[in-house]
Amino acid sequence: MSTSTSTLIASTQSEPLQAVLRAPLQAAPELVAPEPEHCPGPESEQAGKGDACDGCPNQQICASAPKGPDPDIPIITERLAGVRHKLLVLSGKGGVGKSTFSALLAQAFSSPPRAANGEQPSASAPAPTVGLMDTDLCGPSIPRMVLGPDAAKTSIHTTASGWSPVWASDTLALMSIQFMLPDQDAAVIWRGPKKNGLIKRFLKDVEWGDLDLLVVDTPPGTSDEHLSVNSFLTASGVDGAVLVTTPQEVALLDVRRELDFCRKAGIRVLGVVENMAGFVCPNCRGESEIFRASTGGAKRFCEVENVPFLGSVPLDPRIGMACDFGESFLDAFPESPAAQRVEDVVRQLRETIGLEARVANP
Amino acid sequence: MTLSSARHILLILSGKGGVGKSSVTTQLALTLSAQGHAVGVLDLDLTGPNIPRFFGIEDARVTQAPGGLVPVTVHEGSTAEDGGQSRGPLYCMSLGFILATRSTAVIWRGPKKTAMVRQFLLQTLWPPLDYLLIDTPPGTSDEHISLVETLLLNMPAATGTGTGTPSIASAVLVTTPQAVSTADVRKELNFCRKTGLVVRGVVENMAGFVCPHCMECTNVFSKGGGQVMAQEFGVPFLGSVPLDPAWVRLVEEGKTPVYPKGTVVAGVDVGQEGGTAVEPEAEAQTESKDPGLLVEKYTHCSLFPLFDGIAKTVSSAMEAE
User: What residues of chain B, 267 to 306, have a C-beta less than 8 Å from chain A?
Assistant: First the structure.
């Protein structure tokens, strides 16, 4: 065995994390051989200089590749100059409702703000323009959730100034890899650098135009997509991240890791939303906890970790159904407890990031 | 070679996150062990390693030995004295056993994950195993590509499927019933086709929830999506697994599942299932864990009969080759 196991253990403990976070996201140089184990990454500062580089056929290529900040970052910053606020939706855990919640958030923000008493929206208040970017490249769900089965027929148009996003309504623009796939079920079997490249193009080449808010939906975990989004957007400024979780400890365990990531990467945590909390039986109205909060759930988690708790949204089978058909759950069932909890979260976020300060109190 | 200690390799895959891959992996492992097989579980979800939590062994640490890492023993094998079925040993390997604290984020880019996957696969000193179950993160990216590549390079004795493509391992796909979820799992099915993984079947998880108050089953995440998808792709449908709060409770708190009389899951009345003297005591609240091994407690779970069937279908299909 070429590498000893002690290297394996040591590598998990002495993680040069700041180096990873600051690593400029260059397009990786063309390699002549696969990266060796413990490759510092062809695009990193250490490329060609690390211990693992000795004897690697790529050593010269990596060592001579240009270093320093990614020249594309100023281009991204310029492209996103018209975007007033940026919001990341994160969760270490999969399937807790990141995409559902991103879609709900984007739909809620892009409709005219409802008055606090839940009455009809005031006609005078203009609806903000919202962009929703799906960085989950291996499991893109946003198109289906927002457009329903029509998503299959939608594709991206290219213009002289870049890719036009797909407009789901007058005020909601979408971008997802799903719109680019030749076939609905095509698997995107990509390694990290290729994913980073596409995320960069989503920011650099998409005509987002003037947006009040850009919501970025992410895949589960703390890996390439998250690091890329963070490094591409830091220069243009991110308002913060919303963490989504479910009540059980198995999910909170991963959210704790995501919070650790946010802290290390310097991303402001706007708050935690607890999804799928409690289920009301449609038959007997009895309430039960499907995902039991044995450790106090997200509320307790927020107290311990000292981050804002934005609320818990009960599990409503109609949310999943609305997502399958691409309906807006908030418009279809505005009176349901789940919709009201979501609206409540939206209200808090609006205040925190300062979106629509002018129409908050009509 | 450490991989050759395993007679069969079974990957648990899903394009979608949070559909219950780790939960299904854990239950398949417990069931196969209860059926008398020697089982190993390898957790390749590097940024969210939850297998240690599922087995209730978060404090365990792997030990180093010359040539590799020794997996954690969940329980030893045993032969039943009363003529019942003997139990196979269960071993487990996860990045969670190596991390310094449980909240440490593993912020790695692709090449590092690739190296880790390779080392886990090649340097874990598994004892002889009947089945090695590999739990994976969602998606079709670095971990998956590295896993398949490593298997391909290190399994020269790969058996043929009869269709010409060499099979490197078997896979079980997990989905939830909604269209949003099956859409992602379809991508994973195409991944399996491209990489020569033999799909042993699809498990539809979180199909329905039995209200503990009125015993009415609600399809929380709709129903039937997994079956339709399996038919479309011509792969076996292994079954629908309902949501069972008692299973979550068993994992989270170590409580032996107890059901009120008359709870029927998949046509089996688990209220008195298997003649076990489970008193339908309403919410006997105690702080401590119930005594006994996880695998023993699991046999009282309403999901055990379902997984008993699923495990038998999958293992007989794998043995048949």
Answer: none
Longest dimension (CA), chain A: 70
Examine the domain organization and report whether A162 and A243 are in the same domain: yes
Put simply, the answer to whether B220 touches A259 (Cβ < 8 Å) is no
Binding residues of A for [4Fe-4S] cluster, as ranges, are 39, 53, 56, 62, 281, 284
Residue B48 pLDDT: 87
What is each CA distance from B169 to A173, B157, B161, B195, B258, in whole angstroms?
A: 42, 11, 10, 10, 37
State residue B93's pLDDT score. Answer: 95
Structure tokens at A289: 């906890």
Count of Cβ atoms closer than 10 Å to residue B107 Cβ: 23
What is the structure's pLDDT at A43? 66
B184 touches chain A (CB under 8 A): yes
Residues A42 and A82 in one domain: no
Question: Residues in chain B with pLDDT < 70?
Answer: 1, 81-85, 156-167, 261-288
| DSSP state letters, A151-216 | GGG---EEETTEEEPEEEETTEEEE-GGGG-SSTT------HHHHHHHHHHHHHTB---SEEEEEE
CB < 8 Å to B186, chain A = 184-185
Residue A12 has pLDDT above 90, yes or no: no
B17 is in an annotated binding site: yes
Higher pLDDT, A160 or A20: A160
Test A17 with B107 for CB contact under 8 angstroms: yes
Q: Which residue has the tokens 């105690």?
A: B286
| Cα–Cα distance for residue pair B71/B121, rounded to 1 Å | 12
Statement to judge: residues A164 and A40 lie in one domain: no
- Determine the structural domain holding residue B219 and report its residue range: 3-319
Q: Is B211 annotated as a binding residue?
A: yes
Which structural domain range is residue A98 located in? 74-359
Q: Say which CATH number the domain at B146 has.
A: 3.40.50.300
List the CATH number of the domain containing A211: 3.40.50.300
Tell me the nearest-neighbour CA distance from B55 into chain A, angstroms: 11
Output the six-digit token pair for B41: 């579980």
Give chain B's domain count. Answer: 1
ipTM of the complex, rounded to two decimals: 0.83
The type of residue at A123 is A
Shared domain for A49 and A86, answered yes or no, is no
pLDDT, tens digit, for every residue of B234-287? Answer: 999 999 999 888 898 898 888 888 877 666 555 566 554 433 333 334 344 445
In a domain, A8, yes or no: no
CA distance B310 to chain A (A): 23
A25 in a domain, yes or no?
A: yes
The tally of domains found in chain A comes to 2
Same domain, yes or no: A28 and A117? no
Q: Do B211 and A281 touch (CB under 8 A)?
A: yes
Q: What is the pLDDT of residues A150-187, one digit of tens each?
A: 888 888 888 888 899 999 999 999 999 999 998 888 99
Write the burial class of residue B275 (CB in 10 Å: 0-12 exposed, 13-18 middle, 19+ buried): exposed
Residues A182 and A300 in one domain: yes
| Region A234-248 average pLDDT | 93
